[in-house]
Design a protein that fits this description.
Elements: H1 5-19, H2 27-43, E1 47-52, H3 59-87, H4 91-104, H5 108-115, E2 127-132
Helix pairs in contact: 1-2, 1-4, 2-3, 3-4, 3-5
């Protein structure tokens, strides 16, 4: 199961409610749900791992932690943009933000893609260093 499955399900509910014709006048309620989702994401610890080949080669792991934090903060910023779009009743912009967050799983796909790029120049067995952001 994905680490943010509950939050993704909530985001799907918000998207369906936003696009339902009967809920067009209740955008302020969706704003409250988005703010609650933003707070949930702030408090959630997401677990990632970085590969390394020896205890002497761990320099890249701090960089990866910072990159993961950057993507998490980007997702939080997008939720703030979504709140603003809903407040202004910019439905098209809100749908674009929702699609981006859903397609990237709150940017966790981008984070994992970036973390999996690291390759050692020598063939060796890799170990995993887990960290949370």
């Amino acid at each position: 199961m994905q680490p943010l499955q509950k939050e993704l399900d909530e985001l799907n509910v918000i998207k369906h409610a936003l696009n339902a014709e009967k809920n067009k006048h209740e955008v302020h309620l969706l704003t409250i749900l988005v703010k609650r989702l933003e707070q949930s994401l702030r408090n959630k610890e997401i677990k990632f791992y970085a590969l390394y080949s020896s205890k002497n080669q761990l320099e890249h792991i701090n960089t990866y932690k910072e990159r993961a934090k950057m993507y998490k903060n980007k997702a939080i910023a997008k939720l703030q943009d979504l709140t603003e779009a809903l407040t202004r009743k910019e439905i098209t912009r809100a749908n674009a933000i929702l699609d981006e967050l859903l397609d990237t799983d709150f940017f966790t796909k981008d984070t994992e893609k970036h973390l999996s790029k690291w390759k050692n120049s020598t063939r060796t067995n890799f170990q995993r260093n887990y960290f949370t952001v």
